[in-house]
Design brief:
The chain has 345 residues and is an alpha/beta fold. 31% of the residues lie in helices and 22% in strands. Helix 3 crosses helix 4 (107-116) and helix 7 packs parallel to helix 8.
Amino acid sequence: MSPESSAAPDAIGSLSGIAIVGTGSALPKRRVTNTDLESVMDTSDEWIAQRTGIRSRHIHDPEAGESTASLATLAGQHALKAAGMAADQLDLIVCGTMTPDMPTPGIANLLTASLGTRTIAAFDLNAACSGFVYAMNTAHALMTTAPYRNALVLGVDCVTRFCEFSTLGRTSAILFGDAGGACVLSATEDPSKGLIAQAMHSDGCGAQHLYIPTDKHMFLNAEDYDERKINRIVMHGSNIFKFAVSTFPKLIGQTLDKANLTPDDVDHYICHQSNARILSTARDRFNIPEDKFYINIDRFGNTVGASIPLILDQETRSGRIKPGDRVMFLAFGAGLTWASSLWRV
Ligand code: ACO
């Protein structure tokens, strides 16, 4: 009996499988280094690199037409091309984003036009940095219960729109970058492919640790109040740090238990890139070798919902992720939210 077939009752098994058949990603052209940030705020390359592991990030340029929608379109086109699929073959689009370009219409809705799909089911989902993982689990659930054969799942964010690039916002502005990532899911006769186990959590009691107040009435802590912080990220970094350091290992353990697997049974751990120190703590707790646990935060910063599909695309294209491998996606974010999704690809 394979470990998956003896999984706990809440692990998902389907008669027919769902395969990840193509991946894609997109980055803004403009690359901003820590040294560049030194010229607009009181910070240093050394401080940022030591505390976060970040060296540079890409920041979208609205003047050049870059936006959440444009990155989503590019990432989606690349994923469709890799899958050898035309846009009109898609039945479903689920986009994890907390930074749609406007409150409505949503990014997934706009993609039906920019990609040229039929009038299919398409919607955004906001679970902050956990958005892509939530979107993968949601798309899989819909594909196993409704007649959707092909789905495009995305994680796309241009969060730097809400960063204050001055000393006032330095604690959060140094962390973030913009990007988009996508994958195409397709129903397959091969039952070994698809979701093995998943977990999704939310705890609104932690909302005040990271939020974006949209007007003066929206500050969740009285002491955060500052007119200059309206439409800017308000973050209590050390609270988020403590939450993440304890949550990642718990999430890995919970997901392995659901799948009845050991840490060694998983071939790739793809975690939300929030801070290199948070990632190292999780890796050390399970003695996961470095070559199974990807860190690219040095080049891209924290790209919110895009960080996981960005790595998925890189590692799929490099050939490191191979058919039959087990891949665990893990994320935490504002909300607070946290989620996992363990796949056999
Ligand atoms: N450059 C230089 N100094 C700075 C900077 C900066 N950019 N930012 C803060 N400092 C200073 C502070 O003012 C403070 O100085 P003081 O001691 O004189 O008061 C000192 O550095 C330490 O500040 P802390 O905030 O305590 O630094 P910490 O070690 O906690 O690191 C950091 C801050 C990097 C933000 C860390 O807390 C962290 O990574 N937290 C997790 C954040 C995160 O992952 N957020 C994303 C969540 S995902 C989502 O959903 C969006």
